[in-house]
């Protein structure tokens, strides 16, 4: 019944010729360097019936070769939009401006044909909803081989052997390559999508909320798998998540996005230990932390309110409506990005950050705002 | 799998038996006299009764029914009242004639419909190709099929004179099996075949299009695109998944469309089984009509079974129990 007949679990050992071809392929792929990505003034506007929706506005960041950048923010802040645009998957009619240089090559605004050559060879994607990311009518192995054979002129047997290796890397038995997506659990599908993203050892990996659809135990398994692979293969990576704890564990650098803009960015340790932007402070409060002995248990504090409607973005700071420290000026004038060492934030009162941090740790600071709003 | 097929076959036999029974009694309760086609009005009751006896129309309805079923079981459909020949002899050449326009017509209609439907579904939303495709398909689907036939005849036969207007061959040509291999036959075949294709294509096209439109926004299509495969390959993934609903519809529709081809046969005076079926009913030629309906029932039941089996081949999620 299956559409493949190549390797049954019994005769999985590939022929010597295939092994030879696989070794050549592996060497060629392993020689790919980790990519360098520089994103400059990236703006993305979806076209809607009611005018352009400015999902991403003037976003700049850099991913140095072999490093892992965390892109955090709550839902609807434009994180996934950035990822989609980087691999050219924005919906038709979307306006993308700015620059994204991947190893010096502009990857925004490429033709569909030119994109084909960049996709998966230089930049690959671990999708958000692995549950639906696999074609239901093809077996898993076929779908991985399709990616390999689209870019490398190798035989199917060689591609399959490579897929078996990728499966081993994510901890799945090679025999399951013959299975169809519906025979896999959510965690297994997510591993499959990761295996697929690694198949051509692309220099840049985009992981778009790779664990959102999974239960907490599976989330931590998959995240440690991603961390392991990142350390092992040293690819450059952007990890999109709304889980600040994941970023703390995984990423060298962090970009905090709010309502389509960069609120704050910098080395993860700095951003988390000394946040400059009130939104980062609020985001930190909203995640549970393990209690530290001798210190009072930290309360979970949510940020009241919702992300503003980006069909008509507010003129001033986009976080002003939810910020407990906002002044008149915040509502009128958009803040410029101010750097403090390697860290930078878009806030008018960056110099008052220590004072804000103290206040932000108190639940009543945020509650007052919720009552007022 | 095997148990499934056996069970489905058993069910099919039951369905066909039910259809046969209903058909049998329906013809007999209709207030009509089958001898009317052969006997002139006012002929003696004796002659009439002799005919009825010869045709097995005497005795209680129940006895007739039992005899009919018994004959059916050994493949005996009886003799036509009109032609005074065994039904098989009457129908077999007609069935072959019908298959000549039905099989290539339906296959080409389905294949072209699916291919164009994929193209239309994959085209830019609201673009020219999409709008024209949907418009034409909807219009053709709405037009009765005799209009398609008449339009073809008007343009290509009457006005342009490219194709003959009726029948299967010019007079004086080969008859019998050899005629199917003459250019003359193909010349006559062209217009009715095109009519069947045009008649069957729009529904395939629209179904395939809506499937592709639905599938192209699925997450898995996005991942296929992200993999950097060719545009055609991406569209193929959407088309491959859209075939599933199409197949469910296609096979039963095939059988129903064969029944619908009767109109095309009449418009083009094509000596097919559909045309004969209509004539047999109006003539009260029970054996021919019953045999033709029996064949249609068998075809529809088998087509449904085939649809289920093909579906399982196409969709790995289907499990036969």
Automatic annotation (TrEMBL), chain A:
Stored PROSITE patterns:
ABC_TRANSPORTER_2 (PS50893)
The answer to whether UniProt assigns keyword Transport to this entry is: yes
- Swiss-Prot/TrEMBL GO biological process terms: peptide transport; transmembrane transport
The record's keywords, sorted A to Z, are: ATP-binding, Cell membrane, Membrane, Nucleotide-binding, Transport
Task: Give the bilayer topology.
Answer: Peripheral membrane protein
Q: Which residues form the ABC transporter domain?
A: 37-284
This entry carries the following GO cellular component terms, namely:
plasma membrane
Give the molecular function GO annotations.
Answer: ATP binding; ATP hydrolysis activity
Q: State where the protein is found.
A: Cell inner membrane
- Matching PANTHER family: DIPEPTIDE TRANSPORT ATP-BINDING PROTEIN DPPD, OLIGOPEPTIDE TRANSPORT ATP-BINDING PROTEIN APPD
User: What family does the database annotate?
Assistant: Belongs to the ABC transporter superfamily.
Protein name per the record:
Oligopeptide/dipeptide ABC transporter ATP-binding protein
TrEMBL record, chain B:
| Limits of the ABC transmembrane type-1 domain | 95-307
Q: Where in the cell is it found?
A: Cell membrane
Main localization of the protein described in the UniProt heading: membrane
What SUPFAM superfamilies does the database record attribute to this sequence? MetI-like
Q: May I have one GO cellular component term?
A: plasma membrane
Keyword field: Cell membrane, Membrane, Transmembrane, Transmembrane helix, Transport
Residues in coiled coil? none
Report TM segments: 12-30, 99-122, 134-157, 177-200, 246-268, 288-311
GO biological process per UniProt: transmembrane transport
| Membrane topology field | Multi-pass membrane protein
Is Transport found in the keyword set?
A: yes
Q: What family does the Swiss-Prot or TrEMBL record give for this protein?
A: Belongs to the binding-protein-dependent transport system permease family.
The name under which this protein is listed is Peptide/nickel transport system permease protein
- What is the species of this protein? Aminobacter aganoensis
